[in-house]
Design brief:
- The chain is α/β, with parallel strands linked by helices.
- It has two domains: about 20-85, Chemotaxis receptor methyltransferase CheR, N-terminal domain (Chemotaxis Receptor Methyltransferase Cher, domain 1, Orthogonal Bundle), CATH 1.10.155.10; about 95-280, Rossmann fold, CATH 3.40.50.150.
- About 35% of the residues lie in helices and about 15% in strands.
- The chain contains nine helices and ten strands.
- The chain has helices at about 20-30, 40-55, 60-65, 75-85, 95-115, 130-140, 160-165, 200-205, 235-245, and strands at about 115-125, 150-155, 170, 185-190, 195-200, 205-210, 225-230, 250-260, 275, 280.
- Strand 7 (about 225-230), helix 9 and strand 8 (about 250-260) form a beta-alpha-beta unit.
- Helix 1 packs across helix 4 (about 75-85) and helix 5 (about 95-115) crosses helix 6.
């Protein structure tokens, strides 16, 4: 590092110059579409300083050199995972699940009983609470859901979060928002007091897969409900519009797209989907599957 360049975090263990920060910000925006303003320097330092310590690096200049190198591709992915937000909990923004339960599911269940299928997508699923909340909502109306053609796709770019979700193990505090009548779908762990595991029935409804919203999407089906909440909040307007324009055509006829509380639909998707409640958008077109 050039000695005349001050660290953005004064008196820190590892110097991080503006040049270092801008390199990190470019990596995150390129890989995940997330804008990283200069005001986030302290947060970036806090989340990455442990990596410098573990790797025995002297400063962020050395860390940037590593993640930009061919040998540092694994650490580059770790950087992205550390700087993406994984805040989540069961039944977050409960009005969405109420809409799913009362508006989307009843006609869909009627079709399921006639041999139809149901597809749901939790985009940015973090550690699994959102897709399991979708599954629990389905089970609240259809306890024998495993007998029907129901699939919940849960995607995220963080492999660690996906592994947590797939394991389906949560503490009692994490399960506090789950309605009492639905806690039966979790089993206490004998070897870990205070921890509970999602039942086989619950876990079989959800498939956890790695997916970067900035990359290719292998899905070809349309979804009856898509939860993409608090995922694009850090994207710039152009990137948000691009994501919504890709998601819009994937909402099936009668289906819904649920956004985070501070997000709004924009761009071409506004012509495809229409407001049906707080941060809830519907495809009212007829004739698609």
């Amino acid at each position: 590092m050039t000695r005349t360049e001050p660290s953005l975090v004064p008196d820190a263990e590892f110097p991080m110059t503006e040049r270092d920060f801008l390199k990190i910000a470019r990596i995150v925006e390129s890989a995940a579409g997330i804008e990283m303003p200069r005001g986030n320097a302290t947060m970036v330092y806090a989340r990455l300083s442990k990596r410098l310590r573990a790797l025995r690096l002297r400063d962020f200049a050395a860390y940037c050199a590593l993640v930009e190198s061919t040998a540092g591709q694994g650490e580059r992915q770790t950087l992205i995972q550390k700087l993406t937000t994984n805040l989540t909990h069961f039944f977050r923004e409960p009005h969405h699940f109420e809409h799913l339960k009362t508006i989307i599911l009843p006609p869909l269940i009627a079709k399921l009983r006639q041999g139809g299928k149901a597809r749901f997508w939790s985009a940015g699923c973090s550690s699994g609470q959102e897709p399991y909340s979708i599954a629990l909502t389905v089970l609240s109306l259809l306890p024998d859901a495993e007998k029907f053609d129901i699939r919940i796709l849960a995607t995220d770019l963080d492999k660690t979060m996906l592994a947590t979700g797939a394991a389906g193990i949560y503490g009692a505090d994490a399960l506090a928002p789950v309605p009492p009548e639905l806690t039966r779908w979790f089993t206490p762990l004998r070897d870990a007091p205070g921890s509970f595991r999602a039942s086989d029935t619950l876990r079989k409804l959800v498939a956890f897969r790695e997916l970067n919203l900035m990359g290719e999407w292998p899905m070809r089906c349309r979804f009856n409900a898509i939860f993409c909440r608090n995922v694009v909040i850090y994207f710039n307007a152009e990137t948000q519009s691009r994501v919504w324009s890709r998601i819009g055509p994937m909402v099936a006829s009668g289906g819904a797209l649920y956004l985070g509380h501070s997000e709004r639909l924009c761009g071409p998707a506004e012509r495809m989907l229409h407001s049906d409640g707080v941060t809830t958008y519907r495809n009212f077109a007829q004739g698609d599957e």
